[in-house]
Write a structure and sequence with these properties.
214 residues; alpha+beta; seven-stranded mixed sheet
Amino acid sequence: NDYKGALEGKDVKISVPPTLLISALGIIDDITQAVTMDVKKPGNVLYIVGATGDELGGSEYYAMMVTEVGRPFVGNRVPKVDAASAIQRYRAINNAIRNGYVASCHDCSDGGLGVAVAEIAFSGGYGIDVDLQRIPRLVERTDKVLFSESNSRLLVEVPEAYCNAFERLIQGHYAKIGSVSSDDYLRIKDVSGKMRNPIHIQDLKDAWQSTMRW
């Protein structure tokens, strides 16, 4: 967990705190069916699979906030895993991938939906339009919908021709929340239907990479 090298002309050693690492392996029968996270084509439909709750305890969003006494804001509603419903969603998505309905797929983890949407946009090089009103949710604040870290949610890109077949396979909470655009901007409508200021995908990428620049 150590890095040794030059930083600003000086030899440095940077140590990562001890971390529990759990590895999981899966077998893919046909590697050509592997699906990546980057959006593929303008006009494709973007789905969210799984519900978003008020679960920001320990989240990246709260970690950026500071309390009056100068400590990070932690929150007390941590994400909970519903294994029974999660496995149903995963199996349904797997079937959709095997049938060729899925163009890209990405999890919503650190940073929640807001970060996940940014990642699939700048990695694919296309803009995205998202409407937060359409998201299956148990919370109404725009910031919480964007940055909640509720477990077992997936962002799925589906060509329009396969939308009906995809929806027949998916069980539980899902919704069409937007589409891939041909320009370079992420546009988000908040939970009240108001369009927020568009963000260029290069600005999103620069923000994402900034913490890795020493």
